[in-house]
Amino acid sequence: MWPFTSRRIFGNRWWALAFVMVVCWQVIDMFGGAPGAAGNNATATDVSGAPVDDEQLRQMGNTLSSLQKSD
User: Fold this and answer.
1) DSSP state of 45
2) What 3-state DSSP class applies to 26?
């Protein structure tokens, strides 16, 4: 998967620095940047990006509760 061996990457400090930068970039990309502000009134959305209303959230909560009780 990775075209370099660990000996080859870390044998040169510039390759090691590039490797660390790529890993950091991937972590930031995966988990997002800085968290939103505390006063952020974010709206829950579904997979398509459409807003989810309170009734749908309540139904999902009831469904999850019933699944937990069935164990």
Assistant:
1) B
2) helix
Q: Whole-angstrom Cα distance, residue 46 to residue 53? A: 10
What pTM was computed for the model? 0.37
Cβ atoms of 15 and 6 within 8 Å: the answer is no
For each of the chain's 71 residues, which pLDDT tens digit applies? 456 666 666 777 888 888 899 999 888 888 876 665 555 566 778 888 888 888 888 998 899 888 887 65
Closest C-alpha among 1, 20, 24, 2 to residue 10 = 20
Count helices and strands in the chain by DSSP H and E runs: 3, 0
How far apart CA 43 and CA 36 sit, in angstroms, is 13
